[in-house]
Design goal:
By secondary structure, this protein is mostly helical. It has a domain of 53 residues. It contains 3 helices and no strands.
Length: 86
């Protein structure tokens, strides 16, 4: 039976990323560079995700705006005799 519980650390993932940075170099400077790289990666991923979302929104807008340009079935049927000479 477990007698004590360990509190869950909020920053365990961050520690896993920063441990190699501390081990490889100059401490604070290395941590700053790693943090900059991680944030740059997050910004690029966010940009790609937003680009796909905006592309989808543009396609939907194009579909809704130009849907009226598609001829309807009634428009394709020749109900009037235009151009017929009597």
């Amino acid at each position: 039976m477990i007698t004590h519980l360990h509190p869950v650390s909020r920053f365990s993932r961050l520690r896993k990323l920063w441990t190699p940075a501390v081990a490889t170099g100059a401490g604070g400077t290395t941590l700053a560079i790693w943090f900059e790289e991680i944030t740059a990666f997050a910004v690029e991923i966010t940009g790609v995700i937003l680009l796909t979302i905006l592309g989808g929104l543009i396609c939907l807008l194009d579909n809704f705006v130009f849907k009226s340009r598609i001829p309807r079935r009634e428009d394709l049927q020749d109900t009037t005799n235009k151009g017929v000479k009597n």
